[in-house]
């Protein structure tokens, strides 16, 4: 996790991972501790209608990537944001100073998504994506290696450690500016 020579005074961080890996929890706490803005893309899409309708099979909105990027452009250029989303490859690389990929054991993930009431097809799809590390590969293809970190997110202790690691990284980044 190396800082680019950029003009932002505060970093932008992407926290990504398969649904159920703890993205929102891992994003919210460091944002509050460091006064960064937490942007949950799923919530933003709903609030601002940045979608192309509803997908019944996936039981989710069809994200309009161009509308999302247009909506975020100015705020990302300013810096000071933790973005939380289960995708990554449509965001401009220049937006992020650090990209965190949360990973969860597939048995634990299955149980978490089952408790959320995911349909079997959606549940299976997400667990398979986690098993094959699809998101980690997408991140590695989309972002410079020195910006990417994969963190285990199986237990409350893992999540607490991840929050502390991210909070420390943000504070250290801000000191170096």
UniProtKB/TrEMBL annotation:
Locate the region NMPbind: 40-63
For this UniProt record, the keywords arranged alphabetically read as follows: ATP-binding, Cytoplasm, Kinase, Nucleotide-binding, Nucleus, Ribosome biogenesis, rRNA processing, Transferase
* One CC-aspect GO term: cytoplasm
Q: What is its main location?
A: cytoplasm
**Catalyzed reactions:** ATP + H2O = ADP + phosphate + H(+); AMP + ATP = 2 ADP
- Keyword check for Transit peptide, yes or no: no
* Region listing for LID, in residue ranges: 115-125
Q: Which BP terms in the Gene Ontology apply to this protein?
A: ribosomal small subunit biogenesis; rRNA processing
Subunit comment: Interacts with small ribosomal subunit protein uS11. Not a structural component of 43S pre-ribosomes, but transiently interacts with them by binding to uS11.
Task of the protein: Broad-specificity nucleoside monophosphate (NMP) kinase that catalyzes the reversible transfer of the terminal phosphate group between nucleoside triphosphates and monophosphates. Has also ATPase activity. Involved in the late cytoplasmic maturation steps of the 40S ribosomal particles, specifically 18S rRNA maturation. While NMP activity is not required for ribosome maturation, ATPase activity is. Associates transiently with small ribosomal subunit protein uS11. ATP hydrolysis breaks the interaction with uS11.
The similarity comment for this entry is: Belongs to the adenylate kinase family. AK6 subfamily.
**What protein is this chain from?**
Adenylate kinase isoenzyme 6 homolog
Species name for this entry? Medicago truncatula (Barrel medic)
